[in-house]
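Deviation from plan, reported transparently: NAP complex.
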Amino acid sequence: MLTGKTAIITGANRGIGLATVEVFAEQGAAIWACARKQSDEFEYKLREIANSNAVSITPVYFDVTEEIAVKDTVKMIGKNSKSIDILVNNAGISMERLFSMTSVKMIREAMEVNFLSQMFLSQLISRYMMKAKYGSIVNVASVAGMESEQGGIAYGSSKAAVIFSTRTMALELGSYGIRVNSVSPGFIETDMWKGRSKEVKEKILSETPLGRQGTPREVANAILFLASDMSSYITRQNIVIDGGRKSGGGLRELV
Ligand SMILES: NC(=O)c1ccc[n+]([C@@H]2O[C@H](COP(=O)([O-])OP(=O)(O)OC[C@H]3O[C@@H](n4cnc5c(N)ncnc54)[C@H](OP(=O)(O)O)[C@@H]3O)[C@@H](O)[C@H]2O)c1
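Because the crystal trials were delayed, the predicted structure below was used instead.
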């Protein structure tokens, strides 16, 4: 599905990002796997995935909020790739705090990591895609950006901004052959849920028709669909991957 395509994936060292690297490699993509910090374990894992799928995977390191590092990396990738066909903006942080307890600093941090970094990287990469008149950008948002939850002011607002900006980018970039979509995962088995109470997890599961947590690979499969030509007439959309849960209603552990 992705043979001959080059993809950039952020937050590639664990969770949904690493699952996306695996799924894209299985489909033949050449991958620039972006992580914040160099790690031998990460590079070993990438070599394993690359070898078993006979594709090229190159690790690159930068903090998504550091504009100079992002710019330098994009320049380097641009010089060393014949095209940049796919961008998956996946890196993100979660935070939970009631509105009355949330500092502007926290909101700013959520916005910088989850939203502004996606904007900046998409802007730089879309210039390559505009020249090629081809590209697919997939932004990882969240159901938290679709329905308000108690404690979700910083994280939810940043993800709502992702969903909204995805739609605007799709409007402006469509005439260049660039599609822009988002995915909104719900309750997915990653480190993001470490340390959350059993009660919260049980509450979410009780509201989920499929009755279980989603896997990173299930999110990666939706990202693959949007990144590939299988979705060639789909743009400006947000695919929800939450087992059918109707979000909202509040996570009472915080109150
Ligand atoms: N898991 C869920 O239930 C769920 C639900 C909805 C949406 N999401 C979204 O899915 C995406 C992936 O999350 P995940 O569940 O896979 O969580 P995760 O396992 O915590 O992974 C987050 C990834 O983002 C990277 N990252 C965070 N801040 C960064 C920064 N400033 N610069 C570079 N990389 C940074 C992390 O790098 P380090 O390893 O260096 O920290 C890590 O690779 C996020 O956007 C998240 O909001 C997840």
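DSSP finds seven helices and seven strands in the chain. We consider this an acceptable substitute for the interim report.
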